[in-house]
């Protein structure tokens, strides 16, 4: 970059993107990368050769957030002193143009488009890239916007011991001088810049032929055992997904090779065409529990759905790219539910992701699913529970509203017409409407362009919909009617248009509105039904109905109608009979949360004891045992409970770490046991578990150590222990030692200035959730200061709203 370039790269505006797309058409990228400098250093170099067409005489710019050493346009050197805002001006274009830019990037440790990681167990170096929304420009020159698709051809020089992976199969691997090899990859189809990828390192490799595809799995050497343990499960889900989507979308995935690379310190997964990159946290360090396998299956199928919706057909701009995530979230659960062991996947989503969406949607951080996105940095603030989970639920409602046959017919027509192109929301909704024979314009506006959660109320024979802003949304749902013993008497389908509908229901002990959970709304039945559901929801005959009752109870907690102990009691009376592994762990988690954060301080330990007692009841249940033991380890109080967990820890080392953390919280941290555990734990991130165990106690030095790692040095990895550390840090009853950290939290998040989509959020998780009223003013002042980047600002708004609701519940 030139000396006049700003410290932060410019965020592309929608206006600029539209003007550039009108001015040029990109044919291909030929990108040569040299990764040899990353074996022992921090720098990679790139030579990006871009072939593109333009109206003769026009001008535009190319993006490059790297140190540019040379640039030529049609053979003429460009003046590098003209670089501004990490953009290279391209004046006086010809009809056909060739741009060649040589650049280097040394910021390879902050997850800004690329991360170089050194495995602490064996010093092996791994490199992964992830470019959503606009981080390809950090590694090479490109027109970094989703509607300028082009063929990509990569040639990568890397250390000889490394395997290099990209979107397509390697066309050839040749030796180069000085201990390096050159990997040349086949041309990709036309792709947006944000879904191309290069990953490299001395990976463990597994390849298999399944369902006509060449499937690859990769992980770092220190996780060989976990990869080999989980290979069959991952391949089974992958084969299922490729067949399921290919058949139902009317278009098989058009590339034979499909790789999945599990990499260190990634916050989630990324849908790179033909080479999905996953966090290796999904290679669970101990034998995965049923919920963990379900979570991984969901992620595998989510990223795979993007191959069609996002990669093959891509929305033109970020105001519509929310659809990528909403659709992939819907498709993942839909396809998961076709696997026998995950047949109740929708129920699990109801009490996890859907609750997260409700939390955000009733807060000041809510926003329409589709909104105005003037620039890329604003787009990233919108990638939240509204985009993913509410969007998923709204598509589920659309499927119910027009019928699955019409829904799939619309998708098939959409993919067939727009493959390898770019679209807008109207293209998709037009395809759905044509297949259903309905005008969906009003549906689209009501559901996608307005924020807030409807309340659907049953009084007598009338269903009434109340919207926070008066929006009249149509709803397709079912009302289930139950006898006193919980037997289903009738299921009544209802279409609500115009805000209300008459219903003909049988006499029953209780009616449950939205019993199959196909719409997104809070619901309330008549008083007698509500009383029965409050005390006897455990008798409901389906897992989904029981999940809906818990959702409604949680929404009552959010609205201040009940307190934390009421929610705990509601969940625990269901758990007396519930056995589905899709919901048992989420139910226990909600009860934990209500006990610790929504309960008056003097009653917290009593509620935690109740949760622990409920967990004991599942320790002899094969499908739920492992998760129940982890809950018990976090809340155990009696010697019998501790002994039960200790006995099980022989098969799950995570239990040992959780027991150490619980001991620390109770004032008896065992340093010798922690040291011994570090010696025998093969997890590359075992040091994070040790940090978590220390941080759970009230010792100031331990709190400060954890704070330095997570919030100052920011070297906390995206791992299971890393995600759990904030909860271990902010323990109830430790306010004396924790008091200074609320202000420090606000200072730390104010310093966050950016990062790719998969680098968001680890620090924001450290919100001082157990703090009292005293922090509210400071958080409000921080929000008013104008220093927070959009995604941090929106996250803090949502967390503050939840905190206020928690304080009100604690005061009940």
Brief write-up:
Helix content is 40%, strand content 20%.
Characteristic terms for this protein:
812 residues; alpha+beta; Immunoglobulin-like; Neutral Protease, domain 2; 8-stranded mixed β-sheet; 5-stranded mixed β-sheet; 27 helices; 28 strands; globular; disordered N terminus
The gross shape turns out to be globular
The chain-level structural class is alpha+beta
Q: Report the span from N to C terminus.
A: 57 Å
Average of per-residue pLDDT values:
95
Strand composition percent: 15-25%
Rg, rounded, reads 27 Å
Number of contiguous helices: 27
Task: Describe this entry's structure for a reader.
Among the domains are: 1-200, Immunoglobulin-like (Sandwich), CATH 2.60.40.1730; 314-448, Neutral Protease Domain 2 (Neutral Protease, domain 2, Orthogonal Bundle); 453-561, Immunoglobulin-like (Sandwich). The protein has 27 helices and 28 strands. The strands form 8 sheets. An 8-stranded mixed sheet has the order 5-4-7-2-1-10-13-12. Helix 8 (385-402) crosses helix 9 and helix 9 (404-418) crosses helix 10.
Question: Which helices and strands, and how do they pair?
Answer:
Layout: H1 14-23, E1 24-34, E2 44-54, E3 60-63, E4 67-73, E5 76-77, E6 87-90, E7 96-105, E8 114-118, E9 125-129, E10 151-159, E11 163-166, E12 170-176, E13 180-185, E14 198-201, E15 204-210, E16 213-219, H2 224-248, E17 257-263, E18 269-270, E19 275-279, H3 290-305, E20 314-315, H4 322-336, H5 345-350, H6 353-361, H7 376-381, H8 385-402, H9 404-418, E21 422-423, H10 425-436, H11 441-448, E22 454-459, E23 462-466, E24 475-482, E25 488-496, E26 500-502, E27 510-513, E28 521-524, H12 527-536, H13 543-558, H14 564-575, H15 584-597, H16 604-616, H17 625-635, H18 639-648, H19 653-665, H20 671-680, H21 686-695, H22 700-712, H23 720-729, H24 735-738, H25 741-750, H26 776-784, H27 790-810
Parallel strand pairs: 1-10, 16-17, 17-19, 20-21, 22-28
Antiparallel strand pairs: 1-2, 2-7, 3-6, 4-5, 4-7, 8-9, 10-13, 11-14, 12-13, 15-16, 18-19, 22-23, 23-26, 24-25, 24-27
Helix pairs in contact: 2-3, 3-4, 4-8, 6-8, 6-13, 8-9, 9-10, 13-14, 14-15, 14-16, 15-16, 16-17, 17-18, 17-19, 19-21, 21-22, 21-23, 26-27
Domain Peptidase M1 membrane alanine aminopeptidase: 237-447
GO biological process, one term: proteolysis
Cofactor: Zn(2+)
